Amino acid sequence: MLNVDQMAEMVSSIAKRLNVTDNELLTDLLKEAEIQVLDYTGQKKLIGSMSIYVKKLAIINYNRLGLEGETQRSEGGVTNYLEIGIPKDIRQGLNHYRIAKVTRL
């Protein structure tokens, strides 16, 4: 889990990037993104550059607020398809941190 200093630094960075002043919301989004990253990789804690992907995912989750459950949106004759789950570019970056699971046949 992110320590207090790391969390504060990431909240500050995201707040500047998104021009948002609600630090509680950003902290919540970072915690959710961290859990998503750890679940995807199977790791128990962040290692290497995984924190970069937590930050990217928190920003994406912020931009998805209000769109929960939608897979597409049409406005003015233009249809946008929304990616579900962790975007492909973030998954690709996290793939080398994934823990392989072995099962018996």
UniProtKB/TrEMBL annotation:
Pfam families noted in UniProt: Phage_connect_1
Source organism superkingdom: Bacteria
InterPro entries according to UniProt: Phage_gp6-like_head-tail
Protein's recorded name: Phage head-tail connector protein
Top-level taxonomy: Bacteria, Bacillati, Bacillota, Bacilli, Lactobacillales
